[in-house]
Amino acid sequence: MELVFAMNPKVDIQKIQAAVAACGADAWLFYDHHHRDPLAYQILGLPMDDLVSRRWYYVIPATGEPQKLVHKIESGKLDSLPGERRTYAAWQELEQHLRAMLAPYPQIAMQYSPRNAIMYVSMVDAGTIELLREFGKTVVSSADLVSQFQAVLTEEQIASHYEAQRAIDEILAAAFAEIGRRAAAREHFTEYDMVLWLEEAMRRAGLVWEHRPNVSVNANSADSHYEPSAKSSCPIRTGDFLLIDIWARQDPALTGFETCFYDITWTAVIGREPTEEEIHVFTTVRDARDAAIRAIEEAFAVGRPIRGWEADDQARAVINAAGYGPYFTHRTGHNISSTLHGSGAHLDNLETHDERRLLPNTCFSVEPGIYLNHFGVRSEVNMMTSTTGARVTGKIQQQLLRI
Question: What's the whole-model pTM score?
Fold first, then answer.
C-alpha cells in the first residue's frame, strides 16, 4: 500500500464528502470495468478514452481519506485522484483489499437502483452487489448524489441555457412563418426539408444538437419519436396538423465550457381553424403541463422537497380525468444539462417511479402528450430551479397555433 497525492481540478473531494454525509451514507464507492459506468468518469473527472481492461475501485468516505484499488498492470489508473493506493493481481487479493478498504463503512452508496427502478443510475452489476453484501455491507442508491454532481448547473451553464432559449424561440417562430409562406404559395416541401431548414438556422446561430429535430404532420405527430428522413418524409400542405420538437445548446467549442440544452415542442394547424377534437386535446395537454408546473413552483416557493414522480402525477391526473390516459405513453419530463437527457431527476411515475428530488439549479422539461391515431399533441417547456423558486424559461404555448 502507498499514499498517492494528486490534484484533479475536475473533482472536489471535500464537496463529495459533505454530500455523502448529508445523504446518510458512510461512503460512496465507485467501481468500473471496461467503462461500464460513465457516471463515475464524469463525476471523478477521469478520461473516458483510457484503456480499462481491469477492475478498479475508489471509495470516498463521508470523513477520512479516500482509498483506491487498482490492478498491478494498470496501477496508475487512478493517479489523478487523492488517497491511499492498493494493488492486486489475483482475485483473492482483490477481495481481501476491498474488504479491508470498506471495513469502516457499513452503508455504502453506489450507482445502483433497487429493482432497477431508476435505470439511469443502475450501473453496478449484480455480482458486485452480492459480494459487498457478503462483506456485510448495506448498498444504497447514489441516485440523489449523482443528481447533485451531474445535474446541478453552474451560473455560466444557466446563462447558456437562456442564450439557447432566445435563439431557439426566434428560430421556431421563423420556421412557422416559413412553413406558412411555402404552404400559401403551394410549394412542394416535406417534413425533412424543414428539418434541414431548422438545422441550417441553428448552425448560423452557433448552436449544436443531439439527433435531428422532429417536424411531423398529421398521423406522424402521433409518433413521439418520429424521425423524418430523406427517404421517408411526408409533404407539408395547407390543412395539415403540425408538430415541431426542437432542441439545441450553444457550441461548447465556442464558449469553452459545457453548455446547457434548451428543448421545446409546439403544435399548429396550417391554413385553417383547428377542429373541436384538436382544441380539446391541446387544452387537456396544456392543462396537464400547467398542473405539473404549478406543483413545482409551489413546492420551491415554500422550500418543500418535490420528487420527480410527484410532478408526473400532477400532469397525468389531468389527462386521466379527461379520458386520455392510455394515450399518454411517456414520462412528463426529463432532466436537461450538457446532455439533452441528463442524469438528474425525471418527471416520471410511468416508465419509472423516480424518487429523485428536483434540486435547485437544475433544468428539466415538462412535456405531457396525447397521441391518437390521426394526430398527436405534445406541449413542452423547460423549467429552471433555484434555491428560492422555479420558473419556465421560454415562451409558453397557450393555444394551438394557426399558421
Answer: 0.92
